[in-house]
Structures are given as structure tokens and as C-alpha cells.
Amino acid sequence: MKHLMSPLDFSVEELNTILNLANDIEANPSKYAHACEGKKLATLFYEPSTRTRLSFEAAMMNLGGNVLGFSSAASSSASKGESVADTIRMVSCYADICAMRHPKEGAPMVASMKSSIPVINAGDGGHQHPTQTLTDLLTIRSLKGRLGNLTIGLCGDLKFGRTVHSLIHALVRYTGIRFVLISPDELRVPDYIREDVLEQNHMEYKEVVRLEEALPELDLLYMTRVQGERFFNEEDYVRMKDFYILDKQKMELAKDDMLVLHPLPRVNEISVEVDDDPRAAYFKQVQYGVYVRMALILTLLEVEG
User: Fold this and answer.
1) Which CATH architecture has domain 131-285?
2) Domain named Aspartate/ornithine carbamoyltransferase carbamoyl-P binding: which ranges (predicted)?
């Protein structure tokens, strides 16, 4: 039985198989409409989510399966003090597969060690968000035609941004990737990502503060919001939240074929005027998220379409 805690849980070959399956689902949705009939997905979300939770639910329903679960810790027995280990043992009696989001780093890993069903990490604190990474990889490959030989700008909250951490872990395994890390000093990528992932894998990267400086050289810009829920005090959050705003004027500095991605939700960091730019791919990214989660569910349940 396989779980998904990190993008590194799959080899590059296994990832390609999942991405190929997602592309086939996109092209032939009716072929998979009954693949998970009689199967149940449990969504255990101890932290608020719109896209991730609903896309998992849509994915399972698109496969003909059913969904059960909770959308906050307050609406679960966690509010009574039940441990993650006990919750997953109980849920294993009800469902065939589980997607878990938790504010504490490592909580889905604890669940996987006690579970008798596959567990998918749907985001744990500021640590990892592997299904968003699968979504990002599918979006990049589908729209750019490749996952190598790209200059990728990661902008915003690189300190707490689990989507950024997961994406870096995944992309270092592809050739010709160059990173431009765009953030204020307070939100720089953590030392363990810089030293243990980028430098250990001999990746080419640079760190800059100004978005305008980086834009002309990028093939892809990955914007992130500054996450108020990760800050220890309101004053620091208010000071940092509007540090970067991508607007129409800044987009004029970018290549004609640069893609703009964002894991969403956005706040102010991408102006709505950018939405109509053909390079804005973040809503397409949302749709790819459904396809890739369908492919992941099929893979972990070892179900063929």
C-alpha cells in the first residue's frame, strides 16, 4: 500500500505515469466515470480549504465514487481531544482512501503509519503540499510541453509557502531548471531548502528582492500570497502582505510566452486586470488539479479506468 506524503514519494517515471493518466482523463473523461464505483474517499481537513478539498471531492465523484469527511477541526472529534492516530484508525473502517490537511507538520505522516488505507497529504503546515505540486507539474508540462530547461521565478512567501517547498523538491529532479527566488529578506526560502535541496542538488539559483528585476528572464512565474495564518503577529503580516503586486504594467516586462501560476487563493498579489492576459494560467491550473487528483486516486487504489 502506497501513501503520498511528499512529491519525492514517486520516482520521475511514476510521476510521468500519473501525469500521462491525468492527460488521458482530460481527453476521455467518460472512460473513467465509473472507475471508483463503490469506493469512498475521506476528506479530513483540520484546516480551512476551498480548492484542495473541493477538487478532491470533485475528483472522486467524477470517478463514480463517494465522499465523506469534515472541513474543520472544530467539526471533528479533534475538538474533544482525539488524536490523529485514533482518527485515522476509525476512518479506515469507513473509507477506502483518505486525504488529510493539518496545520501541524508531519500529522499526515503520523496518520499513514497507523492507517490501513492510503493516506494523501493535502497540506501539512508550512511543510509540503504534494498534490498541489502534481497539479503544478501537470499545468507546466501541458502548457509548456516540457518539465526541463526552464527558468522559474518563485515569488512572495517563500518561507512559509508549502506549495513552493514541494515544487522545489519536485523540480530539482529535472534537467536545465534554474530558480529565481523573489522575496523580501523576512520571507526568504528556509535554510534547509536552500542548503539541503538546492545546493545539494547543484541547482542554479539566485535570490532577488525586486520582481521587476526578475521578470524579463522568466519562463514561468509562480506567485504566492503572504499567509496571514502563518505569522506570529498581525503587525508583521500587515507590513508584508502587499509587498508584491503583479499588474498589467509589470507583465509588459515579461516574455510573450511566460506563464503565470498561483496555487490560490489570491489576495492582492495578482491584480484582476492580469486575468485576461493569455499568459495567466492559474484558473487552468485549478482544472488540472481535478484531473491529477483523479489520476492519483486511481493510482493509489490500484484501479484501472
Assistant:
1) 3-Layer(aba) Sandwich (3.40)
2) 2-141
Parallel, antiparallel or unpaired: strands 177-182 and 40-45:
unpaired
Q: Which residues are annotated as a binding site for L-aspartate?
A: 80, 162, 225
d(CA 178, CA 172): 9
Q: What string of pLDDT tens digits covers the 305 residues of the chain?
A: 799 999 899 999 999 999 999 999 999 999 999 999 999 999 999 988 888 999 999 999 999 999 999 987 776 777 777 899 999 999 999 999 999 999 888 999 999 999 999 999 998 876 788 999 999 999 999 999 999 999 999 999 898 888 899 899 999 999 999 999 999 888 899 999 999 999 999 999 999 999 999 999 999 999 998 755 545 556 665 666 667 899 999 999 999 999 999 998 888 899 999 999 999 999 999 999 999 999 999 999 999 86
* Residue 279 annotated to the active site: no
Q: Which of 101, 165, 169, 293 is catalytic?
A: 101
Q: Where do the structural domains in the chain lie, given as residue ranges?
A: 33-128, 131-285
- Catalytic residue status for 139: no
Say whether 51 is catalytic.
yes
Q: Any catalytic annotation for residue 129?
A: yes
Which of 17, 51, 255, 279 is catalytic? The answer is 51
Of 39, 53, 102, 129, which is the active-site residue?
A: 129
Cis previous bond, 48, omega within 30: no
Amino acid in the structure at residue 268: N
Instruction: For residue 89, count CB atoms less than 10 angstroms from its CB and return exposed for 0-12, middle for 13-18, buried for 19 or more.
Output: middle
CATH topology of domain 33-128: Rossmann fold (3.40.50)
DSSP state of 189: P
Q: One of 3, 39, 40, 52 is an active-site residue; which one?
A: 52
